[in-house]
Amino acid sequence: MKLLKSSILLISVILLTHGVGKANAFSHFSLQQIIQQDTSKKDTTKKIGKNNSDLDQKVEYKAEDSVRLSKDKSIVYLYGNARVVYGDFELDAAYIKYDKKNNTIFARGTTDPKTKRYIGKPIFKSGVEGTAIADSLYYNSETTRAKVFGVFSEQEGGYFSGGQSKKQIDDELHVKNVMYSTCNLPHPHFGLMISKGVVTEKQIVTGPVYMVIEDVPTPFALPFAFFPKPNKRTSGLILPTPGEDATRGFFLQNAGYYLGLNDYWDAKFLGTIYTNGSYETSLLSNYIKRYKYSGNVNFNYSSTKNGLEGTEAFRNPAKVFHLTWSHSQNANAKPGTTFSASVNLGSSTYYTATAANASYDQRAIANNTMSSSISYAKAYPNGMNYSLSLGSDQTLSTKDISVRLPQATFNVPTFSPFDSKNRVGEQKWYQKITIGYGLQGNNSISTKDSLLFQNDGLKRLKSGFSHTIPVSMSFTALKYLNFSLGGTYNEVWNFQTTRNRYTSFADGTYTYRTDTISGFKRAGSYNLSTSMSTKIYGKKEFKNLGNIKALRHVMTPNVSFSYSPDFTKAGSGPYLAAIDQNGRPILDSYGQDLKYSILENSAFPGSFSGKSASIGFGLDNTVELKVKSSKDTTGTGERKIPIIQGLSISGSYNFLAQRNKLSTLGFSGRSQFTDKLGINYSGTLDPYALDSQLDTASGVRTYIRSNTFTWRRGGRLPRLTSIGFSFDYSLNPEALKRKNEANDKLDAASKKKGLTDIQSEQLAAISRDPNAFVDFNIPWNFSFSYSFQYTNDLGISRVSNTLNFNGDVNLTPKWKVTFNSGYDFENNGLTPMNIGIYRDLHCWDMSINWVPYGAYRSYSVTIKVKASILQDLKLSKRQGFYNTYQ
């Protein structure tokens, strides 16, 4: 049934492509572009003739070999690369007969006496259309009647060949035994044979239509068909696809109705039902306004029953939804103004409950986040700009959701208030002062997705504004030292604050409860800073060290000083003293009075810290080797190898801190050992030692950070509290290069306007699947990525490892096997594996996808036509996934 349905759809598409209005007789076949013979060159061997009648003056003809006339000169015979031009009709053939009296033209090829091949076939063109080839043809220039034998033409990826076609005087087109195929061979592997048909301006009527594979007629046929041809978008029913899912039972998938609203907007309503009682519904809509905007909306709702009948999971099905909306504005529609939308939100269990909308896409099922954004922005010629946006972020595993309704920004770029556009000469020191302004507003809520739409859900919104005013001045001293002086003023406005109510106990412990208070509260802070940086170059050349010619080391040290007053004094600013139920102050772990900020849970907590006067320091390093290039045949070429790229270490020292004046030391960098292998690494060093305490009652030992440097305890080095590194490697760099190029093309294709929802989803699936790009020109490939992370926080160490690998191999020039998987070090086992087998069948291809184990183990076998115009012509078999019955 599925193949029969596809055949009906394909036949209708094919016949619609034959439709004509008041067009020229040959426009139906004029689509294959063929280079025409250049007739502009003068050749004395050519014989050219014209008649003198009013009608015949429109007909021009010529031939390379000879031009002959009948006795009464009413018939012209053209031999050898003959050419006839009549208005916008052009014809080239080995032989052409032109009857001026009856206004008829006959053209055919000729048989080569040596090779016995039929050469010089008629090639004709009409108007602005392309060209087509035929074995022979008749054409009446007065009545525009035509009869064509053995036509061959290309149209939108399809090819028409063979049979007879006749154009009648009333613009009807009659076809007989014409083959349609997407195979570009002269003798196609398959095709649809249209035994006979009549095409008019508003309808198509055909006789038997059947499929032919390797010259063998198949039983996939229609005895007759009638198709209305309104020549515009029309609405209609969408037939379902039957199948089976191992959990939900047999199904009828994606039955519905297509609604062609107008030339700019359409809609598709689809539904799927399963025999166990589950169902899915969806709404898909595309819209486009040329040169202005385009977008699409996709809403899905599913009710899924799991488990056996009578169980709790079966009685209470999982009801989930998913919404996507994409909108893009043409850059030239409103210069300086942009509006875009990328919405992706839904129930946290949507992908797992529906097996990624029955696509069984492992990457989509394993996806743990969903993000959405709708934004409007406007930029002015003077540099000022503002933006408004709505957004959300979801973590599917924890069901946390953060919603911003809305978020606003306004920025004034830095400018020099004391400088003049008409200044002559160098800037004075005060003319180098720059100032800017930034405003940010936020109205957000963070909660669980199940609580978001409850009655009091929106009461938990946090609202506020943040203002930032930076002031700076830069100059150079002693030619090589770059100095910067400045400061920043920050002020926050919040409409919700918090109050903590503390309860202390006899053992010195305490608890507290937080209350949210509505009302406006402002607070401001500022800091002053100065910084200095320079570059130091070092180079060492080698004469007798093989291919190594030189070593270059570039260091970029920087030093900064910043000062900010104390904004944490209780009673001044946003801080309050922590008081227990008896009015006594609460002490922290160091015996100091505890304070808390009433803005700590507000929309903008601000940057309020204690009194600080700190020096910041950092050092960035780059090390390169200059080696002899093995690819340079002259022996003088050199190339650079970056050994260390951006190895940096930084920290700060706060002179006014009561303890732990020196901060932790962070380092990061990248090393490129070969052209194919590079490692990223980062870590943290703690200069302070740990003190341990043993709880005699429980026997548990705890650690606290002391105020003593590690080197004062036996000359130890700073403690390594965290380190991590990652790298990826491909054993075949050419495969990686081709894959990246293919992904770039997919990205470019996804940005094209006017894509249907099916095409957009197919591009998205290919982008997500590393094995979707199958290149038979790469014989093999194997690549893997690895990441390692180690942390030691107060004596508690954690180690995490991640390994992923994928590859492919050509068993033969037409067979390819792909795979991707990984290793779970925590559970000591492989992650879900996907194995694909592909077979290139020229105009067809075959693919087998297999997930051998895991919660979504499945397999599918598909044989389909490569051409997108026949994407429904396929045979597929899929075994669905299994859920754990609850």
Automatic annotation (TrEMBL):
Name this polypeptide is given: LPS-assembly protein LptD central domain-containing protein
Q: Name one GO cellular component term.
A: cell outer membrane
Name the InterPro entries on file.
Answer: LptD (IPR050218), LptD_2 (IPR045659)
What is the annotated signal peptide range for this record? 1-25
Q: Which keywords has UniProt assigned to this entry?
A: Signal
Q: Which part of the chain is the LPS-assembly protein LptD central domain?
A: 204-688
**Keyword Ribosomal protein on entry:** no
PANTHER family noted in UniProt:
LPS-ASSEMBLY PROTEIN, LPS-ASSEMBLY PROTEIN LPTD
